[in-house]
Write a structure and sequence with these properties.
Blueprint: H1 13-16, H2 22-41, E1 47-53, E2 59-60, E3 71-76, E4 87-89, E5 93-97, E6 102-104, E7 110-117, E8 123-131, E9 135-141, E10 148-153, E11 156-161, E12 166-173, H3 177-202
Antiparallel strand pairs: 1-3, 1-12, 2-11, 3-5, 4-7, 5-6, 7-8, 8-9, 9-10, 10-11
Helix pairs in contact: 2-3
Length: 203
């Protein structure tokens, strides 16, 4: 009996084997390559949250009290750069409170956010304003306005001057880990299917 050439002896074995479908193999390999490219191109954006805590108001009209103060949570697409000059930024989300009202990116009718940073990226100068239908909240620290915090609601107010609060970095997270792992899993599965087809064709 004449021995049949093996896959290693015949370089055209995969194209001549009756069990091999080149088109299906190409489709599987193309899918694996596409998933691999998508995995490499997957962006890894970090959501960065800064918090502000102001000092108590010193001048108020009811319902504000001298126990109230401005606080804020501002979410940015990434951390502020070190030594950044005074620059306007656009948050992905924000919440401002003055102890009487809360203004967020969902109910604000206008807002502005500007920051400058020091050598470590910490906020050193700021001007943050947000307004809703019946009130507004302001905090300024070393920018074009006099330092101080202000909350107004239906003609009432609470404010302080020359007593700016402090900003702190709360968290910086990478939210897309789940998507990246899913792409890795799909890529490995596609490569595994392609490998099994080659093994069956060579059998």
């Amino acid at each position: 009996m004449t021995p049949q050439p093996s896959a290693n002896q015949n370089p055209n074995f995969l194209t001549t084997c009756p069990n091999h479908n080149p088109m299906k193999t190409k489709i599987i390999l193309s899918l694996a390559i596409a998933l691999s490219v998508a995995l490499v191109a997957q962006p890894m954006f970090a959501n960065t949250i800064y918090s502000y805590t102001g000092n108590p108001f010193t001048n108020v009209t009811a319902p504000y009290t001298t126990s109230d103060f401005v606080s804020a949570m501002v979410t940015l697409a990434g951390p502020l750069a070190p030594n950044m000059p005074f620059t306007s930024v656009t948050p992905t989300a924000f919440t401002l409170s003055d102890g009487v009202q809360t203004i967020t990116n969902f109910n604000a009718i206008g807002s502005s956010f500007s920051f400058a940073t020091g050598p470590t990226g910490a906020i050193t100068v700021w001007s943050v304003h947000a307004g809703a239908l019946s009130g507004s909240i302001f905090t300024d620290g070393g920018g074009p306005q006099s330092p101080g915090d202000l909350g107004t609601l239906n003609g009432t107010f609470g404010h302080n001057t020359n007593a700016p609060g402090t900003w702190a970095l709360v968290s910086s997270t990478v939210p897309d880990t789940g998507s990246t792992l899913s792409l890795m899993t799909l890529t490995l599965m596609a490569l595994g299917v392609a490998a099994r087809r080659f093994q069956r064709a060579a059998a």
